[in-house]
Amino acid sequence: MEIQDFAREYQSKTDEELLRLELVSEQLTPEANDALKGELSRRVITGTDRLSAFREQEAQRQTEQARNPGSLFSFYGSGRRRFGKAGYLYNSETGMERFTTTVFVVLFYFPLIPTGTYLAEKKREFLSNQITFLEKLPLDWEQVLKVWVVAAGSLLALIWVFKLLPRLLYRP
Predict the structure, then answer these.
(1) Is the pTM of this model over 0.70?
(2) How many CB atoms are closer than 10 A to CB 13?
(3) What does the pLDDT read at residue 142?
């Protein structure tokens, strides 16, 4: 692509999109970078103050996005739920628990697809479910496998009980 092609493309972008490109300008080709600088100066979107403010805003947005796994819900046993407590720490002075947990897509209470592992914090109180997700971590496959093993074992035990129950209730 030539500079004119990049210039036409950048003219159709919003100021925010151009600022996002400016954040990764070292990854652009020299032609794309020249066209970007030209479009930024044409729109008078220059100055380190605006760019640094946008960088801070973008970093804050990414931090919030990493903290929030979305709404955890379960409607008749289907939806999204968290399972597991690995790396558990308890601070007796503040009454706060800190642990890693994995969020799964569930179907009929059965954890199917892991969507993310999070560092979470929770106040240890009676009937307290309010949890704060501090940061998103790489998927903890050990925790995922443990959850799947427990879920599969529980399902097998449930099937076994339903097969055995009629025999115990209706003995001749």
Answers:
(1) no
(2) 14
(3) 95
